[in-house]
Amino acid sequence: MARIDKRFGATDGWIRMPDGTRHYIFGFVDLTGVPEERLALYRGRATLPGPLLEVGEGDEVYLTLTNLGFPGRPELDDTHTIHWHGFPNQIPLWDGVPEASISVPVGRSFTYYFKPANPGTYMYHCHFEPVEHIQMGMLGPLIVRPALEKNPPLPAGFLPTTTRLRSTSVRSSFCSRSWTPWPTAGWPQPNPTTGRSTGRTIG
Questions:
Q1: Residues 74 and 104 placed together within one structural domain of the fold
Q2: Both 41 and 119 in a single domain?
Q3: What is the pLDDT along the chain (203 residues), one digit of tens a residue?
Q4: How far apart are CA 50 and CA 68, in angstroms?
Q5: Distance (Å, rounded) from C-alpha 116 to C-alpha 84?
Q6: pTM: predicted TM-score of the whole model, two decimal places
Q7: Range of the domain at 33
Q8: Same domain, yes or no, for 124 and 197?
Q9: I need a labelling partner for 175 at 20 to 30 A (CA). Which of 21, 63, 99, 202 fits?
Q10: What's the total number of domains in the chain?
Q11: Same domain, yes or no, for 9 and 61?
């Protein structure tokens, strides 16, 4: 499995609706790879929904949250967290619930550790004053890809099919390399080009 290093900023911003109106939001912005001296340029650039966090099952995810503040509401000095909604975490410290974890004050950063064990589609959100912060836009999509996608049991481009009469391996049209099906005792041997049985059995 891989190590994933990401950095998100908590800030505010504006979005344009389909009818042309503009709405003020709280939210997150992707800061991954942004040099420290340029972080301030991302204040007031929140997106809705927040940046997609896409990882693999078993990956070690290090997500740094930097609180950039609300330039549109400078009188607010809210702290922020990232909570992995509906997903078990290793310890409460990284769960983002401020009563049992750490909330990040303006101008500071905190790195969360996350090792997803269950693939699926989830969400993350700020858990500080969650009713207000989620309603204002502090949430984003979290996708955990199954490990099976990284380690497929068959060569890419081939689809094994089974019928009541025989098992064959069908070569898909998008595969550019040739492949010989593995021998299986007692099964009719398929032609690698057509996928049809040659009439000869193996074993």
A1: yes
A2: yes
A3: 799 999 999 999 999 999 999 999 999 999 999 999 999 999 999 999 999 999 999 999 999 999 999 999 999 999 999 988 777 766 766 676 777 788 899 999 999 998 888 899 999 999 888 788 888 989 999 999 998 887 766 665 555 555 554 444 444 444 444 444 544 455 555 666 665 655 555 45
A4: 15
A5: 10
A6: 0.71
A7: 3-149
A8: no
A9: 202
A10: 2
A11: yes
